[in-house]
Description:
This protein has helices at about 30-45, 50-60, 65-80, 85-100, 105-130; strands at about 5-15, 20-25. By secondary structure, the chain is mainly alpha-helical. Helix 4 runs antiparallel to helix 5.
Amino acid sequence: MLGSIxxxxxxxxxxxxxxxxxxxxxxxxxxxxxxxxxxxxxxHFLSREINLRTLAKLLWEMGKPDLAEKYFIRLLxxxxxxxxxxxxxxxxxxxxxxxxxxxxxxxxWHKKASAWEKxxxxxxxxxxxx
Length: 130
């Protein structure tokens, strides 16, 4: 059953709220609606590098902003200070903070993005003129 795809029919919690009950059915390879979705998802995710940023964005789209932030920050901590992805990550974190209503935090992340871009733009510009 590894790699199997299921269609979720119903998800609910038990009366005491401690157990989740999930009703699902095994999908066949010939289900037309699902087939196109799978093809689109494979094209979307396999056409580019998959990293923690990809996972964070997927979690954000799934409505899990806390987990998305966790993975954005984990990647941020792993990257070297000159990595070109840092500016994008700061912007992602700023947009995520804004999305959840934390505007002060959003502003901090966007300021970090601007400062990082300024610092790294000047160092690359100097290198080009030498």
